[in-house]
Amino acid sequence: MSVRELVVLGTASQVPTRHRNHNGYLLRWDGEGFLFDPGEGTQRQMLRAGVAAHDLNRICVTHFHGDHSLGLAGVVQRINLDKVPHEITAHYPRSGQRFFDRLRYATAYRETVSLREAPVDTDGALAVTPGYTLEARRLSHPVESFGYRIVEPDGRRMLPDRLAAHGIKGPDVGRIQREGSLNGVALEDVSEVRRGQKFAFVMDTRLCEGAQVLAEDCDLLVIESTFLDEDEELAREHGHLTAGQAARVAREAGVRHLVLTHFSQRYTDPEEFERQARAAGYEGELTVAHDLLRVPLPKRR
């Protein structure tokens, strides 16, 4: 059975707190695992969350501030220690290549795993597979930053009543799916479009076109909301979003489930982020993230 869920490993911005680890997010997408922004302590959080190095297939770093990347050294060494048998691909801004190199080889260890480097320097598709397309879009932050988006291709949902009406059953169901028609009956006559799911990961950024494009029509959007609305000037100065701004991005993009994260340590009441997001008009499902939370993707439309 396929599993699609977000495992939140850490939710703090800039510095960890007593209750929040540095950033870290694992997306389980069927048989693959995407690790986003492994901040300091990610390896230990993976252990606490029941995430193994073998679960990782891609590592996606939005930018090279420490709270989003300092855990990379430990994660890279762990996948080598555990001798992960498959190739792992690392995506990160090409402009931060020197930082990636330092983190990859921070200390001595034995390399046993194929870690493929696939740096990002422009908007567009990074990988196309039968199950998804991984895309990147540039964000607005004091250092170069990219957000990521996973898009599943649309499929077909077979309709039992229409199949029965045309006398199609058993192996013939698979045949019409493969061939597109059977005895004069078109696939479109016995099925309907099943919309592919969409996921986006938007970290440190001001309001910008890239954030909106990434969020468009997403089933699940993970987005930073470092500041509350009363500190909007601070957010703009430091290249971040407020809770209300993040919610407006989600509302305008038609997001089904919004996950707010990356909170400044200056705030002690996480419920205020939800209140401000609702005040901004977002009416979909809303989660204020905390460490070790699991968030399933919404059921298909």
Description of the molecule:
Helix 7 packs across helix 9 (243-253) and helix 9 (243-253) crosses helix 10. The strands form 4 sheets. Strands 6-5-4-3-2-1-18 form a 7-stranded mixed beta sheet. The protein has helices at 42-49, 66-69, 72-81, 97-104, 160-165, 171-179, 209-215, 232-238, 243-253, 271-279, and strands at residues 4-10, 24-29, 32-36, 58-60, 88-91, 115-117, 124-128, 133-138, 146-151, 155-158, 181-182, 185-186, 191-194, 198-202, 220-224, 257-261, 285-288, 294-296. The two termini are 19 Å apart. The longest helix is centred in the last third of the chain and has 11 residues, at 243-253. It is built from 10 helices and 18 strands. With 301 residues, the chain is of the alpha/beta class.
Give the rounded overall mean pLDDT. Answer: 96
Principal-axis shape equals globular
- Helix/strand order, N-terminal first: EEEHEHHEHEEEEEHHEEEEHEHHEHEE
| Largest sheet, spatial ordering of strands | 6-5-4-3-2-1-18
Look at the helices and sheets and give the structural class.
Answer: alpha/beta
Oligomer: single chain
Instruction: Evaluate the radius of gyration.
Output: 21 Å
Helicity, in percent? 25-40%
> How many helices in DSSP terms?
10
Q: Let me know the largest β-sheet.
A: 7 strands, mixed
Q: Would you count the extended β strands for me?
A: 18
- Determine the N-to-C terminus distance: 19 Å
Which tags fit this structure?
18 strands, 7-stranded mixed sheet, 301 residues, alpha/beta
Q: What would you say about this model in short?
A:
26% of the residues lie in helices and 26% in strands. The protein has helices at 42-49, 66-69, 72-81, 97-104, 160-165, 171-179, 209-215, 232-238, 243-253, 271-279; strands at 4-10, 24-29, 32-36, 58-60, 88-91, 115-117, 124-128, 133-138, 146-151, 155-158, 181-182, 185-186, 191-194, 198-202, 220-224, 257-261, 285-288, 294-296. The mean pLDDT is 96.
